[in-house]
Amino acid sequence: MSGIKIESTDINTAPGVTLTPEQKTIVGSVLDLFAGRPSLEKLKLWHDDATFEDPITVAKGRKKYEPQWYGLQTAFSEIERLSHTVKSSGNPISMDLKTRYVVKGINKEQTISSVINIFTSADGKIERVEDKWNGELPDSGFRDALRKLNSVTVPAFVSVPKNEEQDKARGN
């Protein structure tokens, strides 16, 4: 895991919470993703069949979750992390995250307070990330169907770089 370019290296932890160097890399990479700073290198920390889930999507598998992260650059003109605190270093690693987003084109500002749960496997790679807005994920069949539809439509409109040269050309 060492050698990966992580921008979010100042990890705030709650009193009594200690992260291993590997956990700091995982948390920093996830914070970078939420800040709209994806890279193929950071996404190598994820299993191919990992899942990202929030109130608007359930993206299972690399071809579905990678476009979700690259899509943030497309959808938002500004992404500002207002605060974060890692509350638990177990499995999942759990943190509170507050982020301000500005939607491109219409300049609508939205602040989202989330509980982020990062599940890792025995090899240290990410298996699942849950982004619970206001601490919750939807539980209705209709909303879940819309979330699954989103995981299919976003990859159709958001391209993911094919290699590190393309990634760097995007500024990642």
Which features would summarize this protein structure in a list?
single chain, alpha+beta, 6-stranded mixed beta sheet, 172 residues, 5 helices, 32% helix
In short:
The protein is built from five helices and six strands. The chain is α+β, with helices and mostly antiparallel strands and 172 residues long.
List the helices and strands and how they pair.
Layout: H1 21-34, H2 40-43, E1 46-54, E2 57-60, H3 62-75, E3 76-88, E4 93-103, E5 109-120, E6 126-133, H4 141-157, H5 164-169
Parallel strand pairs: 1-6
Antiparallel strand pairs: 1-2, 3-4, 4-5, 5-6
Helix pairs in contact: 3-4
If you had to describe this structure to a student in words, what would you say it looks like?
This protein has 172 residues and is of the alpha+beta class. Helices cover 32% and strands 33% of the residues. The protein contains five helices and six strands, in the order ααββαββββαα. The chain has a six-stranded mixed β-sheet with strand order 2-1-6-5-4-3. Helix 3 packs across helix 4. The longest helix has 17 residues. It is globular and about 40 Å long. The two termini are 18 Å apart. The model has no long low-confidence stretch (mean pLDDT 88).
Compute the gyration radius: what is it?
15 Å
Distance between the termini: 18 Å
Biggest β-sheet, characterized? 6 strands, mixed
- Oligomerization: single chain
Helix and strand succession? HHEEHEEEEHH
Percent range for β-strand residues: 25-35%
Mean pLDDT: 88
Q: Give the overall form.
A: globular
Low-confidence stretches: none
The DSSP helix count reads 5
The number of E-state strands comes to 6
Strand order of the largest sheet: 2-1-6-5-4-3
Helical percentage: 25-40%
Structural class: alpha+beta
